[in-house]
Every structure is written in C-alpha cells, then in structure tokens.
Q: What sequence folds into this?
C-alpha cells in the first residue's frame, strides 16, 4: 500500500506544554481514517501541521512523500475542512463556492450543485449570517466536491441535525465508492461513524494511544461480566482498560485478542462476554488515569 | 489553475473593500466640496485635501483585507507565497486603476478651470510643476507605499500576534521620541522643514526603495505566519 502521510515523532509545544508529543503514524492511500480523542487531545493541531498551517516544534512530517510547507505539489492535493474556518465578512455562500471551484483542481461542479440542494443552503446569504449547522454544510460541500486525494474533516458537522448528518455519511460513502481517495475524519460522534472507519487513530493528551485497523480493534474489545472471583481469575494478566463492580458482580473491559480456548473457558465459568462499541472503548481509554484509579479503589 | 490567480480571485470577490468604498467616500467628499463651491459661486478658492482619504484608505484596506483573507486562503491550502504575490498584484492593479482615475479627474479639473468654482480637489497646487506622466507616477507610488506600509504592519500582527504589535509600537514610539528629542536638542527642526520644503520631490522617489523594503519584510513575516 502506498503511504501518503508519514509522521515521525511529531511534537508541537506551546511554551512548556506539549499539545502533541512524539506522535508517529502513517496513512495509507484509499482508506477512511478516524482521528479520535477528547477535546484538546491534539487532533486539530495534528491536522493543522499536516496541512502546513502550523509548524511542528520537532519531528518529521511527509505528505505525499514531501514536506507540505509552501509546497504546491502537496497542498494542491489536500482539502482540509475545519470547524474553525473563517471567511471574509462580505462573502456569501456563492462566493465561497466560486472561489473553491477555482482553487481545487478536481472540483466537481455537478456534485457541488447537487449537495447545495440536498443541504438546502441559501446561495445568496452572507456567511456571517449562517447558522452553525449551515456553516458546517458549506464545509462539507467543499470537502466532498473538491475531490482532493487527501481530504481531512475536522469536526465537520457541528450544529448539523441528524438528517443532515446521515445525508453527509451517505454522500461521503457514495462518492468515496465512485472516486476512491483518502479521508481523515475527526469527530466526537464516534458511534455514528464507527462503521465507516477503516483505520482508527486515538489521541489522548497529545500522545497516540491506538493506531489500528478498525476491524481488529472491534474484535479485540470485550467486557467480561460475572461473579467477582471468576472474573478476576479469568482476566488476570490480561490487558484491562476498565473495571467496575456492583455487589458480588464485576465487569472488566479487556483490550486483547482472545483465542477460542479463552472463550470456551469463559463460557464454562458462566461468564458473559459482551463486545463493546468503539465509542465505549474510546471513552474507557481516554478517561483520565486518576478516575481509573478511583474506580480501582472502590 | 494558477494559485496566485486564485488569490486575486479571492480579492476580486471583495471589490467593495478594494475599490468601491474608497471611491464612494472620496467622490462623496468631492460632491460636498463642489456643492459648497457652487453655493459660494466660486468667489473663494477651495483647496480641499479630500484626495488624501483614498491614500489613508489604502493603508487601512490592507489591514482589513489581510485579517479576513489570509486565514481563508490558507484554509484553502494556498501557499503563503502565493497569497503574498496575489495580494501584492491586486494592490498594484487597484493602485494603477485609482491613479489613472485620479489623474484623469485632475485633467478634467484643469480643463474646466477648477470645475468653474475655484475648487482644487484632484489637481494639487504643489504638483503644478510636474509633468503629467510624473504626476501619474507620484499618485501611483504614494498609493502602493501606503499599501505596503499597511501590509508590513498587518504581517507583524499575523506573525507575532498582539504582543508583536505592542512591542512594535512601543519601539516605534521610543525611537521617534529619541529622534524628536535629538532634533530639538541640536536645533535641527527648522533645517529639517526647510530641507523638506526644498526636496519634497525626492521624498516621492525615496518611497520606491521603502516600498520594496516593506514588501520584502511582509513576505518574510508571512512565510512564518500560522493560522488556527
């Protein structure tokens, strides 16, 4: 597989604080990536650095094999839709789309027109007067119609209603199937997108926690539920990411591939094995460590 | 598509800020002066400085334009270099058009005998000696000089933020205080104004290298500017 993004020990510091610390990963061509994590985890900072809008403090960064900084060969293949994008005050929706059409080399006029209708955007309205959801729709239209080989969406649907969101997923998947490209998606609504994601990167407090195929990750995360003693003996020595107990019952969440033998053993001991959703998994992983300790003491 | 042209397109969508606003303001001021001239039947000569507004506006325009379009352009993955070149090209174009218009209005003023009411608005008395081509050149040079002066300041703000602005203006104030003190101390003020009175034409020429320096500084600053 062709690697279109290579990031090596990427770090971004603001004074003494590190927003991103020693992050290393690669992005392969033609897949949908999810960049997940809590607010302030460093997702947006990473995306800003990938698109050369921010400068790394240290580390290596290659996009399409080259440094993206002031490099049109790289930048012309990118489209970065961010929640914090600002527009000139006098611009109307129409102006933004006209400019985007002249700047993105692969711009699809028909698709843009179709999306405009789907999202019911008022063409003549000023960007300043748009609601949060409409503003997000403009970003989504640009992100999809630009057909950039690497499209990055950062919280693309803030303020969008459920109908518009499912419209976005539908259009994204449809267009992705017809025009394969690489998509990086950062979002809080993990459950909604978890089925689309092919690869998951989880960032917490500036560090990369998980870099795995979504399929593998889904098959690895389980909650084991049953009587305390049985659960404890079964999960001993395994990679535990969360535990809770109520009375004599205990539930432990594991992140580890279990072999069939393990599963049989669990069944024989009357333990229940429940696969957990990606959202739950990420909540467990990124809950602050101190909380985890409090839970242990209980 | 060429990305510098893309930047110019971004600016061109904002024709109001670039072209219409300064001209509407200045022509309005001209109209007021003209009405006064007509009401006084041209008995008193009016030497209006109204044409200065368009020059001050050029300085202000880039402050507004850069604050709004730089984050937008970078958001569309435009290179900083392309932004700089496209914006400068737009400024040269707008300055050229405005200078030609000012020049043409000055000519009309000359031929209509100061609009028939002794209103000297576009044809400035101190440029009487200058050839028409020289006058056109001066209009243009002063305008792009104003533009790039604003460009440097907005680029300092872009690159170093509010703190940078603060430091810059403190330094500027301290420096000009020292200069002004030295001038007073050595009794040079009169000589200074005498020199200006005799050499003001040279000042226009000096604006050319100054403008080049402003432009280079703006470029260097923008190359390291970020958006979030």
A:
């Amino acid at each position: 597989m062709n690697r279109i993004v290579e990031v090596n020990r990427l770090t971004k510091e603001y004074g003494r604080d590190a927003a991103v610390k020693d992050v290393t990963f690669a992005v392969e061509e033609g897949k949908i990536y999810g960049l997940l994590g809590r607010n302030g985890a460093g997702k947006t900072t990473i995306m800003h650095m990938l698109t050369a809008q921010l400068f790394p403090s240290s580390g290596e960064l290659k996009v399409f094999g080259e440094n993206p900084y002031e490099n049109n060969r790289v930048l012309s293949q990118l489209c970065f839709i961010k929640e914090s994008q600002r527009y000139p005050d006098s611009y109307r929706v129409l102006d933004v789309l006209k400019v985007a059409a002249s700047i993105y080399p692969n711009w699809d006029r028909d698709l843009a027109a179709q999306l405009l209708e789907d999202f019911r955007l008022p063409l003549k309205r000023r960007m300043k007067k748009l609601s949060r959801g409409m503003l997000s729709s403009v970003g989504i239209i640009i992100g999809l119609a630009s057909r950039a080989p690497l499209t990055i969406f950062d919280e693309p649907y803030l303020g969008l209603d459920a109908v518009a969101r499912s419209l976005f997923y539908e259009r994204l998947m449809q267009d992705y199937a017809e025009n394969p490209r690489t998509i990086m998606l950062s979002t809080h609504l993990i459950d909604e997108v978890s089925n689309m994601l092919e690869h998951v990167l989880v960032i917490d407090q500036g560090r990369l926690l998980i870099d795995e195929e979504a399929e593998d990750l889904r098959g690895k995360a389980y909650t084991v539920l049953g009587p305390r003693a049985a659960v404890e003996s079964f999960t001993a020595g395994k990679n535990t990411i969360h535990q809770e107990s109520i009375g004599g019952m205990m539930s432990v969440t594991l992140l580890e591939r279990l072999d069939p033998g393990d599963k049989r053993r669990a069944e024989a001991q009357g333990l229940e094995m429940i696969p957990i959703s990606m959202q739950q998994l990420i909540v467990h992983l990124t809950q602050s460590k101190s909380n985890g300790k409090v839970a242990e003491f209980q | 598509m060429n990305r510098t042209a893309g930047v110019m397109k971004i600016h061109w969508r904002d024709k109001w800020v670039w072209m219409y606003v300064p001209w509407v303001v200045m022509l309005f001021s001209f109209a007021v002066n003209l009405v006064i001239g007509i009401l006084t039947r041209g008995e008193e000569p009016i030497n209006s400085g109204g044409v200065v507004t368009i020059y001050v506006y050029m300085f202000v325009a880039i402050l507004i334009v850069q604050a709004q379009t730089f984050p937008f352009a970078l958001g569309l993955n435009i290179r900083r270099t392309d932004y700089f070149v496209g914006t400068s090209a737009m400024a040269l174009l707008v300055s050229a058009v405005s200078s030609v218009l000012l020049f043409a209005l000055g000519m009309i003023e000359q031929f209509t005998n100061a609009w028939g009411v002794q209103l000297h608005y576009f044809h400035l008395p101190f440029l009487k000696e200058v050839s028409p081509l020289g006058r056109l050149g001066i209009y243009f040079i002063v305008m792009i000089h104003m533009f790039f002066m604003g460009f440097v300041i907005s680029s300092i703000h872009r690159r170093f933020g509010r703190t940078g602005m603060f430091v810059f203006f403190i330094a500027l104030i301290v420096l000009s205080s020292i200069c002004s003190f030295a001038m007073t101390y050595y009794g040079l003020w009169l000589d200074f104004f005498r020199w200006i009175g005799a050499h003001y034409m040279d000042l226009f020429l000096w604006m050319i290298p100054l403008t080049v320096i402003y432009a280079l500084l703006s470029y260097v600053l923008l190359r390291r500017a970020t958006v979030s």
Notes: Residues 162-178 of chain A form the longest helix (17 residues). The first strand of chain A starts at residue 3 and ends at 14.
